[in-house]
Amino acid sequence: MSRSASGVDEGFFGDLQEEIARELRLMEAEEAESEALSLRIEELYKRLHASDNLRTIPGVGEHTAPVFLAVVGDPARFGSQAEFANWTGVVPGARQSSDVEAKGLRMTKAGPPIIRWALYQAGQIGRRYDPQLASVYYREVVHHGKNHKQAMGAVMSHLAARVLTVLREGRPY
Questions:
Q1: Rounded to two decimals, what is the model's pTM?
Q2: Cα–Cα distances in Å, from 89 out to 40, 47, 71, 157?
Q3: Which terminal residue of the chain, N or C, has fewer Cβ atoms less than 10 Å from its own Cβ?
Q4: pLDDT value at position 19?
Q5: Concatenated DSSP letters of 61-117
Q6: Which long-range contacts (CB under 8 A, 24 or more apart) does 105-113 make?
């Protein structure tokens, strides 16, 4: 073990430098792989959805549009808007017994979790730029006393309806 004049173990710092250099090389490789994957996803998205109508919906962007396209697939498989909303799982659950009906329960969370992630991400952005989504969020929070997550559920439900409509009709929002 070699020590400098200040009493610091120089071998320790050499090992630390090697460890940091190794971690940096791994990070660079992961970033390169991530970039290549993003380019491939964008290429496939453009081939499958050349019109790029999904991105005309406020809040839907480069990461969420391919998710919607991939997960929804053929929009004709959903008979109605309500069926699609139930499939996404962003509708509140309900519980009913003989004389009592409980509404406004937690989201059902049916369907693939990735669509809820994409709807949440798009909703967070969309409510900042789209007056209609901002109004939905505001109404839920201020007039109905909902918390942020509950209000975002309403925003996500509205966005899901827009996504299905744009995919069904094949035209911009």
A1: 0.79
A2: 29, 29, 13, 9
A3: N
A4: 94
A5: -TTHHHHHHHHH--GGG-SSHHHHHHHHT-SBP-EE-SS-EE-S-SB---S-HHHHH
A6: 107/153, 110/86, 111/87, 112/71
Regions of the chain with pLDDT less than 70: 1-9, 93-108
Q: Which of 65, 79, 58 is nearest to 158 (CA)?
A: 58
- Angstrom distance (rounded) from CA 84 to CA 77: 9
Q: What is the pLDDT of residue 6?
A: 60
In the structure encoding, which two tokens stand for residue 106, read together? 């937690």
Cβ distance 134 to 127 under 8 Å? Answer: yes
Question: Quick check: helix, strand or coil at residue 35?
Answer: helix
- pLDDT at site 92: 73
Sequence-separated (6 or more) residues with CB below 8 Å from residue 172: 51, 53, 56, 166
